[in-house]
Specification:
By secondary structure, the protein is of the alpha/beta class. It has 14 helices and twelve strands. The radius of gyration is 20 Å and the shape is globular.
Length: 358
């Protein structure tokens, strides 16, 4: 059964991401691992071949950032999209950069515009389909960042605006300046902290949800054994859940997922990804991979049917008291710590006084 699922490519449905008219494939492709973060950059021809395989399979939603590389992932995608631009939806991000070898979060209007112009050049496109604030600058009112993004929409340089790892209150404040199309945050069987506040807020406001790391950064697909095979430069070695003392507990989560996968006739990766895919029609997971075989397996998750009882059982494997370790190596950069200062009362909408805050 597993072989049949991985060899038979299902049709990839299309969904409306949010209520602002952006249509994407129900499953996207996270591209960070092709160029950075998860070990050395992969060979460019192989990654372009993978991207084209995704497009031909019906996956048209691609996720990148100027921080990935930095910069090289956007350049890679720009090359891959030559001749197929009209078939894809491009999502990129700004707001995280290295300055003097230190990580800096930046949301000032001048930087917003500079980053957008640079991403357009690297991607070699005229307009970005979805432009995210990668992380929230807690020193700049979110309204100030959004005013500049709104201008970029009006100028035709971006079509839609999104936030990544933003709190419910930040989402509301941003949405009041210009409608948000999507919020990207981590969501998987063992990362569900967004379900109490973020998901209800997005659904109330008509904002789509893009789930990054839906396979637990590879753990829910391959289990604890893959950690020892990671390159020393692989960022995942720094994540708390992959520390040895936590792996001893977390490996039981993977084992139980494998047991259900055997019963369902699919792989552990397909089962975990199917759970995210079936969170709602407003949810688009973006699993990343650098291998065509893994990509094909991920698409096979669309064929996995889960009953309400199946979902409840899966969720019981990875409740908050069972999972050991924080989900992120830098929890200070997640939605739980993303509040920005209030907008001064004297600031006028899109006026010179707002620009003075930058």
């Amino acid at each position: 059964m597993t072989l049949r699922m991985t060899m038979t490519m299902p049709a990839v449905p299309r969904i409306q991401l949010g209520s602002n008219g952006l249509e994407v494939s129900k499953i996207g492709l996270g591209c960070v691992g092709m160029s950075a973060t998860y070990g050395p950059p992969k060979p460019e021809p192989e990654m372009i071949k993978l991207i084209h395989r995704a497009i031909d399979s019906g996956v048209t939603f691609f996720d990148t950032s100027d921080f990935y590389g930095p910069y090289t992932n956007e350049i890679l995608l720009g090359k891959a999209f030559k001749g197929v631009r009209e078939r894809v939806e491009v999502a990129t991000k700004f707001g995280v950069r290295l300055k003097d070898d230190k990580l800096e979060i930046q949301g000032h209007p001048r930087y917003v515009r500079e980053a957008c112009e640079a991403s357009l050049k690297r991607l070699d496109i005229d307009c970005i389909d979805l432009y995210y604030v990668h992380r929230i600058d807690i020193e700049v009112p979110i309204e100030v960042t959004m005013w500049e993004l709104k201008k970029l929409v009006e100028e035709g340089k971006i079509k839609h605006i999104g936030l990544s790892e933003a709190s419910a209150s930040t989402i509301r404040r941003a949405h009041s300046v210009h409608p948000l199309t999507a919020v990207q945050t981590e969501w998987s069987l063992w990362s569900r902290d967004l379900e109490e506040q973020i998901v209800p807020t997005c659904r109330e406001l008509g904002i789509g949800i893009v789930a990054y790391s839906p396979l637990g950064r590879g753990f829910l697909a391959a289990g604890p054994g893959f950690i020892q095979d990671l390159a020393e430069s692989d960022f995942r070695k720094r994540f708390p859940r992959f520390k040895q003392q936590n792996l001893e507990q977390n490996k039981h989560i993977y084992n139980r997922i494998c047991e259900m996968a055997d019963r369902k006739g699919c792989t552990a990766a397909q089962l975990a990804l199917a759970w995210v895919l079936q969170r709602g029609e407003d949810v688009c997971p973006i699993p990343g991979t650098t291998k065509i075989d893994n990509f094909d397996q991920n698409i096979g998750a669309l064929m996995v049917s889960l009953t309400s009882a199946d979902k409840a059982e899966l969720e019981s494997y990875a409740t908050g008291d069972i999972v050991k370790g924080d989900r992120h190596a830098f929890m200070s950069q997640t939605w739980m710590n993303s509040e920005t200062p209030p907008l001064p009362l004297w600031t006028s909408m899109e006026g010179s006084s707002a620009e003075a805050l930058a």
